[in-house]
Design brief:
Radius of gyration: 19 Å
Oligomer: single chain
Shape: elongated
Protein name: Type IV pilin protein
Number of strands: 4
Structural class: alpha+beta
Organism: Bowmanella dokdonensis
GO biological process, one term: type IV pilus assembly
Strand order of the largest sheet: 1-2-3-4
InterPro entries: PilE-like, Pilin-like
Pfam family, one: ComP_DUS
């Protein structure tokens, strides 16, 4: 009975830490996708007079984030990654945003 109690205590401590690491890993993947989209935006602007809309470039598909582009003009854009599904537990870090000037928000999540 003591062994079961000890295993239960260890599991109660370890499981939340594990969940936190999983969320951070998924957030890292979303950040990588945003940086890839930024490269696509800059490449698109080299060949055109403005930044791309969602229809101009392919948006990444993820089970944990929805990606979008907003505030698109000849000189600006904002890339967004909004958590979905089980990743919404990472509420302090959604949405992740990145713009043409490399402004990243929320800063503590990058």
């Amino acid at each position: 009975m003591i062994v079961i109690a000890i295993v239960g205590i260890i599991a109660a401590i370890a499981f939340p830490a594990y969940q936190s690491q999983i969320q951070e890993s998924r957030r890292g993947n979303a950040q990588q996708q945003l940086l890839q989209l930024q490269l696509q935006q800059e490449n698109y602007r080299l060949n055109n007079n403005s930044y791309a809309t969602e229809a101009d470039i392919g948006m990444p598909v993820s089970d944990y984030y929805t990606f979008s582009i907003s505030n698109v003009s000849a000189t600006t854009y904002q890339l967004n990654a909004t958590a979905k599904g089980s990743q919404t537990a990472d509420a302090a870090c959604t949405p992740l945003t990145l713009d043409q000037s490399m402004n990243k928000a929320p800063a503590t999540c990058w």
